[in-house]
Specification:
By secondary structure, the chain is an alpha+beta fold. The chain has 14 helices and 28 strands. The strands form 8 sheets. The chain has an 8-stranded antiparallel beta sheet. The protein has a 5-stranded mixed beta sheet with strand order 1-2-3-5-4, covered by helices on one side. Strands 6-7-11-9-10 form a 5-stranded antiparallel beta sheet. Strand 6 and strand 7 (118-122) form a beta hairpin. The longest helix has 17 residues, at 318-334.
Length: 587
């Protein structure tokens, strides 16, 4: 993970072209015999999702017809977006007989009312285009994810967010005031119907974070704000003794603030990010380096070096890994963490600019096609660096205790934390409690970590036990909720019980889609309807498909055994024990 970032930061020429990602849907016979994947080219269980057919509607009428045809035949349906950035199996209909409905061409502006500050778009519109359409009318979306190549429908499926505890908070769905959604219907109504859900409709809280199991969203209306300016400053400090308390308070001090804790370096990067008067000088721009396009041959070379660092001799070269992590963090700081003061160069903080230039970026999918001479680093065509990027949200009230536990874990072996993204470490954003049934149940700290994943199934990660204990601690001890689009399978086991309004969501689901046309085995598992999202088999804990309960769930033949956590003793993790021999599968 450190290697590709160092590559980006040492480029002498900023590439202006890039091969945009392929469509995640691929069919071998016209629109039949199809597969669907995500941006990384693989799902948590490394399976291939198949479907009998795919449809690309260009109008709401065509969308209704596609749903009606599938509903009449009782075929499973799933929605695919333009870039499919969810790691989880949201787009998999299950089996081989389902239908994929792509919203790629449902990407237009329907209407904009600048006086009322309302924007209606089709669900396949990509966030970057929505941001620009709004800005042209003098409006903006107050908060958004930092990656702008997600669709509006995808945002609502997963509850994607930026960082803010102020106003309506950091989640995009909190600004939704209207939705048109196509759902199955009885034969007497033509097998499909458009439901118009307004701001006062009781079902809006189900629809605005839906996992795609209620139907296909056709149009979304958002309440926007007048275009404003932001001032951003990143401050790096030595890790304070009261880190846990500082993090818990930070979201209340800065409207768009976030925190990146680098445990191995004992450093903390505080983002001071607030609105300023529009008369404040500055024309800042965000162009985050990890989203730049890279030369294809360099992407492949970075992967080879990453595999050497992480897999040779069990990934025990901690000094090299920690050195790379430190250098990547320092280099990113020199570049202003992707911000420029004038759209070209970074000259120092604060960086001041208009919201639509400062809130998100996605350069590697926005650039002209160049025949795969360059691409996003994760493009599966190149088999470049691969990573896990799980996320979970810890209640703000529990965050200090959680971080104190993580700190105790770090103190046992600081270099183990070098496996985390060197410039990101433990990334923390802030999100308000949501009225959405599957939104955040309370004000929270949203934690992201990123670390190496082998492209070969069953290959252990260096210090996997430390990262897995951290995640289990958050989820099981502190009741964190997993991110619907990022987390590994084990994180969803029992998670639905942490949503107090889950029952209300399932009641709406039963009314909208009683035959489960838009449900799948995966969605039924994570929603607690049928089965468990964990997959218990040999090596399952190595892949994050289960929490180990016996040695065979790890890789005992490679020296990885199922052991209790070191700080959270109830955790069960795969730990490398040099020179150990497999005796039995008992803890």
């Amino acid at each position: 993970m450190q290697i590709f970032l160092l590559l980006i930061l040492t480029l002498t020429i900023r590439l202006t072209s890039s091969s945009p990602p392929l469509d995640p849907v691929a069919c071998s016979d016209g629109m039949s015999d199809c597969t669907v994947t995500n941006a990384n080219g693989y799902f948590p269980d490394r399976s291939i999702c198949r479907a009998a057919s795919a449809v690309y509607p260009r109008t709401e009428e065509e969308l209704v017809a596609a749903v009606a045809e599938a509903a009449a035949a009782k075929r499973k349906v799933k929605v695919a977006t333009r870039y499919s950035h969810s790691f989880t199996k949201l787009t998999c209909p299950g089996g081989r007989d389902g239908t994929l409905i792509s919203t790629r061409w449902l990407n237009r502006t329907v209407r904009i009312d600048a006086e009322k500050r309302l924007l209606t778009v089709e669900s396949g519109m990509v966030l970057r285009d929505l941001i620009q359409v709004a800005a042209a009318a003098g409006l903006c979306l107050p908060s958004s994810p930092y990656w702008s190549a997600v669709t509006v429908g995808g945002l609502l499926a997963t509850g994607a967010h930026g960082s803010s505890l102020w106003g309506k908070g950091g989640a995009v769905h909190e600004h939704v005031v209207g939705v048109r959604i196509v759902t199955p219907a009885p034969a007497s109504e033509g097998f499909a119907v458009v439901r118009e859900i307004g701001a006062d409709h009781p079902d809006l809280d189900a629809v605005k974070v839906s996992l795609g199991v209620l139907g296909v969203i056709s149009q979304v209306t958002l309440a926007l704000e007048p275009l404003f300016k932001r001032s951003v400053t990143f401050v790096t400090r030595d890790e304070p003794s009261d880190l846990a308390e500082q993090v818990a308070a930070w979201g209340g001090l800065h409207e768009f603030g976030d925190v990146a804790w680098l445990p191995h370096q004992r450093k903390v990067i505080y983002r001071e990010d607030n609105r300023v008067d529009v008369s404040t000088p500055g024309n800042g721009l965000l162009d985050f380096p990890a989203f730049w396009s890279l030369p294809a041959h360099e992407i492949v070379a970075a992967r080879v070096e990453e595999e050497r660092l992480e897999e040779v001799n069990g990934g025990t070269n901690a000094a090299a890994r920690c050195s790379a992590a430190r250098r990547s963090a320092e280099a990113l700081d020199r570049l202003g963490r992707g911000y420029t003061n004038d759209g070209v160069s970074f000259t120092g903080y604060p960086v001041v600019g208009y919201q639509h230039h400062m809130q998100a970026s996605s350069a590697c999918v926005d650039s002209p096609e160049d025949g795969v001479e360059s691409a996003c680093f994760w493009d599966p065509r190149l088999r470049g660096p691969s990573l896990y990027n799980p996320a979970f949200s810890v209640a703000l009230s529990k965050a200090p205790s959680f971080l104190a536990d993580v700190r105790r874990l770090r103190d046992l072996n600081p270099s183990a934390f070098c496996v985390l993204h060197g410039a990101m470490g433990v990334s923390m954003r802030f999100v308000r409690a949501s009225s959405a049934y599957l939104g955040k149940p309370e004000d929270c700290v949203a934690v992201d970590v990123a670390y190496y994943r082998s492209r070969t199934g069953g290959v252990p990660r260096a210090h996997a036990d430390v990262v897995d204990e951290l995640e289990q601690m958050a989820l099981r001890k502190y009741g964190a909720v997993p991110h619907w689009g990022k987390s590994r399978n084990f994180a969803f086991d029992g998670a639905i019980a942490r949503y107090p309004k889950a029952g209300a969501f399932l009641e709406v689901k039963e009314r909208y889609d009683p035959d489960g046309i838009f449900s799948s085995e995966w969605s039924d598992q994570v929603l607690g309807i049928n089965g468990s999202p964990t997959i218990v088999e040999k090596g399952c804990a190595i892949e994050g498909l289960c929490v180990c309960s016996e040695d065979s769930h790890c890789a005992p033949e490679l020296g990885y055994f199922c052991r209790p956590g070191k700080v959270y003793a109830e955790a069960r993790v795969c730990r490398f024990e040099a020179g150990a021999t497999l005796v039995n599968d008992e803890l």
